[in-house]
Amino acid sequence: MNTQSLRPPGSDVGILLRRWRDRRGVSQLQLASRADSSARHISFIETGRAKPGHGLLLRLAEQLDVPVRERNTLLVAAGFAPVFPETPLDDPAMGTLNGELERLLAVHDPNPALVHDALYNVVGANRGLLALVSGVADHLLTPPINTMRLALHPEGMAPAIRNLPQWRALLLHQMERQIAVSGSAPLADLYEEVAAYPVVDSGALEPAAHAAYAVPLLIEREGVQLSFVSMLTTFNTPLDVTVSELAIETFLPSDQETAAALRDILGEIRPPEAGPGSR
Question: Which of 49, 98, 263, 278 is most buried, with most CB under 10 Å away?
């Protein structure tokens, strides 16, 4: 994947707007129609002959599905103040959200679950998740813990993933889609790093462990093969940059054997030391 093509060439609002429009495959006429403007005015903005008004710029960003963080970037490039706050998770204003996330993660036990940000850094996890990281090198468990490094690094979970080539391809494709949507240079850097990791030999795939409805994650733990399907949940209509970039990932057992094994091993795991808001 050529991630260089996804990096913004400059901070001029016209350049940024044109890049988002090209990324979404929308013509000037289509965008103008959706945002109650004219193709001529859109063209003038993109070429620097006109400056967009505050309201129009937000409408254009909404119609182009620009991520919340990048909407602030567009506003600043046009000479306006950012309108979407970026509140740290350890801010007192996030207390209620952190508490609810902790309760949500706990409710998922014994099924592994975690909360990560836009760069896949873990901001919260439950006891069930610790069942998946047994044997991982200490340096991969030093905050901020990154789920992509954790999964694909040769000293991480990769040797225990029985269908590593298949799962690795899915994770890389997921990152490619997110880079295309967000245009995030830091995420492109992370992609280049983890894509370069050597693919370790994780052993033979057990065909019987396949879930009929989704590609499973097959992990061996102490001689037992665990089979999961992954589910991602995000916040609807967020108005804060931090919240807009949070995702809850849950690993659901794809067979009864995995469900039973999780119940058996949950008592062996100590609770995590930190919940959401800690890095």
Answer: 98
Burial (CB count <10 Å: 0-12, 13-18, 19+), residue 247: middle
Long-range contacts of 38-42 (CB under 8 A, 24+ apart): 42/17
Matching residue, tokens 């970026």 = 86
Task: Write the burial class of residue 190 (CB in 10 Å: 0-12 exposed, 13-18 middle, 19+ buried).
Answer: buried
d(CA 199, CA 2): 20
For residues 235 and 243, the answer to whether their CB atoms sit within 8 Å is yes
pLDDT, tens only, 53-70: 999 999 999 999 999 999
SS3 helix, strand, coil % of the chain, rounded to 5? Answer: 50, 10, 40
The amino acid at 24: R
Query: For tokens 């894509």, what's the residue?
Result: 195
Global pTM value? 0.83
**Residue 63 burial (C-beta neighbours within 10 Å; 0-12, 13-18, 19+):** buried
Long-range CB pairs of 42-50, under 8 A, 24+ apart, other chains included:
42/17, 45/13, 45/14, 45/17, 46/14, 46/15, 46/17, 46/18, 46/21, 47/14, 48/12, 48/14
Strand partners, 232: 249
Residue pLDDT, tens place only, 122-136:
999 999 998 788 789
Structure tokens at 54: 């505050």
Tokens 């965008």 appear where?
A: 31
